[in-house]
Amino acid sequence: MAADISTLAGRLGSAILSGLLRTLGQETAAARDTTSNSLPTRFLACVRTSESEARLEHQFKEHLNAGPTKPAQPAKATNGMINGNGLLNTMNTPTVEVWRGRNTEAVRQASVVLLACQPPQLPVIIAEDGLATAMHGKLVLNICAGISESMIRDHIYRAVRLGSLNNNKDVAGESHQADGYYIVHAMPNAASTVGESETIISPPDEAGFPAEYDALVNWIFGCIGTVTEVAPDLMNAASITAGCTVGFLAPALQGITAGAVTAGLDEAVALRMAAQAMKGTAEMVLALGEKPAKIMDKVATPGGCTEKGLQVLLAGAQRGSVSMAYEVAIREAIARAFELGSRSSGSKAK
Description:
The protein contains 13 helices and 9 strands. With 350 residues, it is an alpha/beta fold.
């Protein structure tokens, strides 16, 4: 059974799609047979604006399918992503269709849905006529910052209940748990564009979560990097640590490059050198298990250049300011994630 994916809103969803297409392009027929027949090949990218439509059509032009204007193909199981962009395909060769203003139709055709919109937009998207009902029984991947699985279920319940009331159906006996929705909260980071994301996942609460969905979740996010599972109450802290750190390290690269340029190095060369050094430092931690303090001690020869540079960063009145600044930045970013989630659950998006 092949899986089709629908994506609603966002550039991060586009990055995930790029990773999926890259991986599928590298898969051999034999590899697919050993993995399963459930890998997605049709992708629906759902957007709101003509600008986003044009951007995605250009970005995925090598995989582009005319989509809605072509005769419908026999439907197989589908996967959907909701990031403002929706994706779907049932043929052996991966194809992308860009749909504008057709979220509900895309979700109906998909078996996997990726929610990747801005948090304030989520209640409005789920409330679209028929969309919540269309997600029932499907794998729903939520990568909206600060939005928990329980918040998604609340939005689904409200949307389904409102739809029932509008259609004069009896809702007295309906469950408030939005049962039958297989929701996974996941947070990739910007490095997904180069296949180096650290994606944080909160295991689903839904009883009887299908084993094939669990395997598909790990495959999808494995296409863009590594995957780490954490408890739901640690989701914000973990996703901020993995996600915002990409941005927090950029000023270090910027400053090091600027210093090298003042000494005469070409800016592009200096930036590449510094980036490679940062990549090497990360590998010393990941591959060798080195602690940051040990790395500093290892490279800082007494009286040498590294020691002198570290003294400038950490000495005198500035002692501890670098690490403290990053600590405060992480704390503030985590607090912001909770704030965004609170706004989404407590008010309508504007």
